[in-house]
């Protein structure tokens, strides 16, 4: 008899999730003779036992659809809010999967999902994950589906901002998602020809950014487009942030931890409007009018590009093969030209930031793009 498998999508949605569900499902059902169900709303559906059958018909026509047909959530399985209480729901998940006679659960998600998957794997569940995120920050994989589409969207936005910045002789700052990593901003910034690119990995000085813009002015370029990562910070804000983070890591007692976490949350909150602050500072320093465009969730919406559909489909089939062979506790990862199964212990709790010696940074420097350094 074929295996019975559950699949879910967790964390922020991302273009390519449906392509991955379809890729896994078609291979699992059609090629390996498995039976498939889909849990609704990520980990929450797994805990609350909410699922739908996924047969060939349910998988048909979803390749190009954005978002996720299953729904998603950002729950942590060991700390879930249930009826107003925070509870560890690992045992409930194991019990639900046993009752459903599932041989495995496939989870499509990013760093948070890898942590949930590892916790459930350690609790005895057969789990495999697929790397999904627009941020491209998952350790152990060269890339993740969603990233290429989001980079396309952000690049097009930068293209469009150029013509309006140029017409009005303005500085336009565009804030690009990416959480704590600068991949999206750097990739779209280079592809869109941004004049300045600011990344979380390289704390910037406002003076250096305004010098780049003033130098352009002197050369007759009376406008500038600045691509700002949502996690980018100036040197002083970065110092506050790093100190607050260190405090959380070094606090031992429960009370000390709580106070440190509250302090960190306050620091993050105070820095939330950093792109607007930078716009005001650049306006004062250069004399050019400045405007801000926050790209936000537009970057996560809509149809996946061809590269993401291809990646998601291939990862889906790689995961189906792994389930058929009984390889669990792993993430199906894109490595070089091919794919590998990477242990979840090498993925969970790790963040893939842009290395400072990465070729994209070198390219930006050689193009004369300001990095605020
Ligand atoms: O991880 C994807 C992402 O879009 C990040 O770029 C961003 O920081 C975060 O999710 C936003 O999260 P939420 O959807 O919970 O607002």
Structural overview:
It is a single chain. The chain is an alpha/beta fold and 373 residues long. The protein has two domains: 175 residues, Rossmann fold (3-Layer(aba) Sandwich), CATH 3.40.50.450; 125 residues, 3-Layer(aba) Sandwich (Rossmann fold). It has 13 helices and 14 strands. The strands form three sheets. Strands 1, 2, 3, 6, 7, 8, 13 and 14 form an eight-stranded mixed sheet that branches. The radius of gyration is 22 Å and the shape is globular. The mean pLDDT is 97. The protein binds 6-O-phosphono-beta-D-fructofuranose. The site of 6-O-phosphono-beta-D-fructofuranose has 11 residues, from loops.
Describe the structure in brief.
By secondary structure, the chain is of the alpha/beta class. The protein has 13 helices and 14 strands.
Instruction: Count up the helices.
Output: 13
Shape: globular
Strand content bin: 15-25%
Bound molecules: 6-O-phosphono-beta-D-fructofuranose
Largest sheet: 8 strands, mixed
Give me some keywords for this one.
373 residues; alpha/beta; Rossmann fold; 2 domains; 8-stranded mixed sheet; 4-stranded parallel sheet; 45% helix; 18% strand; binds 6-O-phosphono-beta-D-fructofuranose
Give the SSE layout:
Elements: E1 4-9, H1 17-31, E2 35-39, H2 43-48, E3 51-53, H3 56-59, E4 80-82, E5 85-87, H4 90-99, E6 104-109, H5 111-122, E7 127-133, E8 145-146, H6 147-168, E9 171-176, H7 183-192, E10 196-198, H8 206-218, E11 224-229, H9 235-250, H10 254-270, H11 274-286, E12 290-294, H12 306-325, E13 330-335, E14 338-343, H13 359-366
Parallel strand pairs: 1-2, 1-6, 6-7, 7-8, 7-13, 9-11, 9-12, 10-11
Antiparallel strand pairs: 2-3, 4-5, 13-14
The chain binds 6-O-phosphono-beta-D-fructofuranose.
